[in-house]
Write a structure and sequence with these properties.
Blueprint lengths: L3 E10 L9 E9 L4 E6 L3 H7 L5 H16 L12 H8 L7 E3 L3 E5 L2 H12 L3
Antiparallel strand pairs: 1-2, 1-4, 1-5, 2-3
Length: 127
C-alpha cells in the first residue's frame, strides 16, 4: 500500500494548569483516507503520584476512556461520538485548559494507521 497522510495528537495529563507540567497519557491518530480514527491511553499511577499525588485517578481514567470511546464512535458514548470521524477528531484535539489536554496536531505519512498508533503510543507514552 502507498503511504497515506495522517494526523495525530498526544493526550496529556496536566494536574496543575498553572505549573504547566504534564505527563503523556495517550495518543489520537486520524487517517481520513483509510477511514481510521482511534485513541489509545494508559495511566501509570506511580508516575502520576510523583507529579501530583492528589489527582483523582478514577476520574481521569473515566475522562480518558470517554475520549477513546468518542474516537471509536461508540453509539453509547454521547452525541459527539455520532459525528463524522473528521468532526470527532477536531473535537478531541480542540484546545482545553482542563486537566486533560492535547498537544499540537502533527502530521505524517503512514501505511498502516493502527500500527502507527501503536508505534506513537510506545514512543511517546509507554516507558
Amino acid at each position: 500500500m502507498a503511504p497515506e497522510p495522517f494526523q495525530y495528537a498526544v493526550l496529556r495529563l496536566v494536574p496543575s494548569v498553572e505549573r504547566e507540567e504534564f505527563l503523556n497519557v495517550g495518543v489520537i491518530v486520524f487517517c481520513r483516507t483509510r477511514r481510521f480514527l482511534a485513541a489509545r491511553v494508559a495511566l501509570d499511577p506511580r508516575r502520576i503520584s510523583t507529579l501530583a499525588g492528589d489527582v483523582d485517578l478514577d476520574s481521569v481514567r473515566a475522562h480518558l476512556d470517554a475520549r477513546v470511546r468518542v474516537a471509536a464512535g461508540e453509539a453509547d458514548a454521547g452525541p459527539i461520538a455520532a459525528l463524522s470521524q473528521s468532526e470527532r477528531f477536531h473535537w478531541l484535539v480542540a484546545p482545553s485548559s482542563t486537566i486533560i489536554q492535547t498537544s499540537a496536531v502533527h502530521s505524517g505519512l503512514c501505511e498502516d494507521p493502527q500500527l502507527t498508533l501503536t508505534n506513537l503510543f510506545n514512543r511517546l507514552v509507554s516507558l
